[in-house]
Fold:
Amino acid sequence: MTDPILSFEQRMLEAERRAREEAERAREEAESAREEAEHAREEAELARSEAELARLQEAEARARLQVLVESGAAMAASLEIRTVLSAATGAAARRICDYAVAFLSGPTGGFQSAVGAHRDPARFGAVERMANAALPDPDNPHSLAARVLRTGEPVMVQRVSRERMERVMAPGEQLELARTLGFASLIVVPLAARGRTLGALALVRDDASPPFQEADLSLASVLAARAGLAVDNARLYEEREYVAVTLQRSLLPPELPQIPGLEIGARYLPASEGTQVGGDFYDVFDTDGDHWLAVIGDVVGKGAAAAAMMGLARYTIRTAAMSESRPSRILETLNQAVLRQTSDQRFCTACCLRILRTGYDARVTLSSGGHPLPLIVHEDGRTEVAGSPGTIIGVFDDPVLSDQVVDLSIGDALVLYTDGVTDERKGDDEFGEARLHRALSELAGASAQAMADGVVDAVIDFRTGSPRDDIALLVLKVVP
Amino acid sequence: VNLLDVSSAVQGGRAILALTGELDLNTVPHAETSFQQLATESGSSPIVLDLRELTFMDSAGLRFILAADARARESNRPLVIVRGPQPVHRVFRLAMLEERLAFADSPDEAPGPNPNDV
Structure:
């Protein structure tokens, strides 16, 4: 039997315990609800900041994309280093900084040139003057451009002190311009490609702009990486152009020989100053002391294959002339050599002539392999065509090639040319043979070189638009 | 500006490539592409290169024609060139090719299709 009092007390205790437990549970529930609410708030906050971050990143990504889109095409399309650097600094100045300068390193280390741009086009000149007043000294320990060139690592100075600016800038114009333009925050990133640092890109903000942030540094680095590649491509292109021009020169005689009683004039005008080696060639050389050999020719097409055939033609003719005296036989030898070398209908044309200068005249034996026939210009202005046509060189194994003999008197000139002369155009009209005869007739009596120059001038005067083809002229004039 | 127009057609059993404008180093690739396509699609029909509307031809153009002729010879197909105007034809004369290539004054003078193919 239970004790009623005890059991009352027990019930009270029990009720109290339950109430406590319930209160505790309610408190816990409230707490957990609060926690949940807090958690939810935190999550909402996180989501909000993530959204904000995403928005910022998107804006930044857009800006980044924009700067790369703006500069990328211009840089990629350009084969000139200065144009590439203008595009890069221009894009940087519009999107990342107030003004930018690209420094290009030279072959012996250090910097050799600078290209600049300002957000405000009116201040372009000031940036360029400041940059070129004194290029960064590679030995200046304070120069960030020099450091970047050395290490290949980007650097950022968020706040440039006055002392730093004065240590880096050359006193005088450069320092003055830097003060005028403002020099408050600085990023320098390497212009690098294929493992080589080619220069440095400096981005500057003035005192009115906020200091650079990490995001600016990474954007500048991406821009500089693209610019570095474009500079490298342009550099390769310039090298190739140099090789092409050198090759072209090597295929023309460095200087024409002095021949007693025979004046020689020559002109060569490439259609384009560019990487394409043209197909025209000429040569004049001594065969046995008494006889001289002159040749002019034209190889189809341009570029390396044309240059190779030009080399083949020039050296084959020189070699053949040691054992063959007849120009037609020399051209037959050339025909065989070209046939052996190519099987793709790449051909050349050539006019080959052998000259014997006697006491009172010059006897010329000439043969043409598909080449425009030379013109004789008499001292009185009469002109006539010399020789007869022959088959182009390098396509058929049975070319028709013949020798014609012409005697030239003192004062007469023989003009050899390539079809670039007669093919030059003005609208639908071409310079043609008639104009060539007329031009030469007016030049009769002039020196060999003056005749060659005069024809080139007439062609340049005539043509409209860009040159169509290479032009080569070789003039031989019989003089006392 | 397209300086060379090329039209190709198979007419009366002949594959005709008609060139209008200027055939030079810059436009030859265009002519080559059209020629390859026409030559492939026209079986063994005789080929006609119609140069009547050509205003200019340089040595690169001549090389294209020689290559077309060589290709036709390889497959035993006649190739006939319809003469172009004087400045164009002069290029053949200067190269001494009048005897080596087959010329005609109009596409109708070209040989007809091989009777075995009809």
Observations:
- Chain A has a mean pLDDT of 86.
- Residues 193 and 218 of chain A are 17 Å apart (CA to CA).
- The interface with chain B takes residues 298, 300-302, 344-347, 349, 370-372, 389-392, 395-396, 399-400, 419, 423, 425, 428, 430, 432, 468-469 of chain A (CB under 8 Å).
